[in-house]
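Good morning C.,

I know you're traveling, so I'll keep this short. The sequence:
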Amino acid sequence: MQPTARTLRHLVFTAALLGALPAQADDLQTLEAENATLRARIERLERENAELRGVVRTAEPPVPARVAERKTEDGQTIWTTEQARIDTTGGGRAAHYLRLERAPGSPEATLWIRTEFSGGIYRHTDRLELRLDGAEHSLPIASYNATRITTGVGPRPQRRDHEIVSVTLTPPVLAALAQAATMGGRLGRMSFTVPTDALASLRALARKTS
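The tokens, ready to paste straight into the viewer:
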């Protein structure tokens, strides 16, 4: 029996389909492999994205540093931080303020502590115990000045002196301050801690080169 034209066409189509199956299988495997690679890349990017979002959420905003330049009475230029109030214990009710001064190019700096109505309690203090990141630095008092203020009337008026104490920060101490995350110390019986915003300015001045 001779095959008809229709039967021949069916045989040709079937042969062509069977020949195409291996090629289609290869293409499918390739697509599946590429798809798996793409999914892995997307998952990795999503993990990195989540990590970056976490860093942004937990990062603290930068603390502004305030360093000014001014002229002294004799015309010299100095860098100085703003006067900042410090947190104290053991110094009575007196307000305590701190600032740092440095001449351009100088390897040293001067740390000033000023008090209001402290009554002369630092008159006989000879050292400042400075603490930077827990490390102690014992610094001799470089200068002391008091402004006598008396209040009240009668035979026993009360003294409410304003006092100013200064110490010199040597190059090693200044280098430690430039990297310090915490700062505190003790002056006489008064202990103090420098707030974060004030410490940012002190660090900036300690690092300043021009």
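Safe travels,
E.
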